[in-house]
Write a structure and sequence with these properties.
It contains 9 helices and 4 strands; from the N terminus they run H-H-H-H-H-H-E-E-E-E-H-H-H. The chain is mostly helical and 172 residues long. Among the domains are: 67 residues, no CATH class; 44 residues. The protein is elongated and about 65 Å long.
């Protein structure tokens, strides 16, 4: 498994972001036949080359959205009241969602890239990067966002682009 160089990853994203987002928009408007199966295949291939503990870019640069259940569960785990937990660690954004006050995430151990509350982490974190939703086309907005933060998502989209290009060439 290759080590993730976040500086190189960010440069690669900057260089290819417009092309990839354009591809995803076309895919959203005209999905490939068998897209969900292809996405599942791409997801499996991506994880062969990606180790979250090597990267942790999501925890370093993004915030999960905390549900009421997340707040209750995590606060209890930390021996805090829900109110004290929210006051110490969260803020309400303009849409009314509870988000981390700071980046990187306060629960990320920067030496090991491990989550200090992994067993009770927010639902958003547990599902990230959301590759295996039933219909990829319904979550295209997530892919468009996450290619900038998650090397695994970037690789999933690269894989799909490659397979789409191969399919197009085979038709010609």
């Amino acid at each position: 498994m290759a080590t993730v160089n976040l500086r190189s990853f960010r440069q690669m994203v900057r260089h290819n972001k417009r092309r990839i987002k354009s591809f995803l928009t076309r895919l959203e408007n005209k999905p490939l036949r068998g897209l969900d199966k292809l996405t599942s295949e791409a997801d499996k291939e991506s994880w062969k080359r990606t180790d979250c503990l090597d990267c942790a870019n999501c925890c370093k640069t993004m915030s999960p959205t905390y549900t009421k259940k997340d707040v209750k569960r995590i606060a209890a785990h930390l021996g805090m009241t829900e109110k004290a937990f929210r006051e110490k660690w969260l803020y309400k954004d303009k849409t009314g969602d509870w988000m981390n006050v700071k980046q990187p995430c306060q629960f990320l151990d920067l030496k090991t890239n491990m989550c200090n509350i992994y067993a009770v982490r927010p639902r958003d974190c547990a599902g990230f990067p959301h590759h295996t939703k039933k219909k990829m086309v319904e979550y295209m907005h997530m892919y468009k966002q996450n290619i900038e933060y998650c090397p695994a998502t970037y690789r999933v989209v690269e894989y799909i682009m490659e397979k789409a290009s191969e399919a197009k060439a085979a038709k010609s």
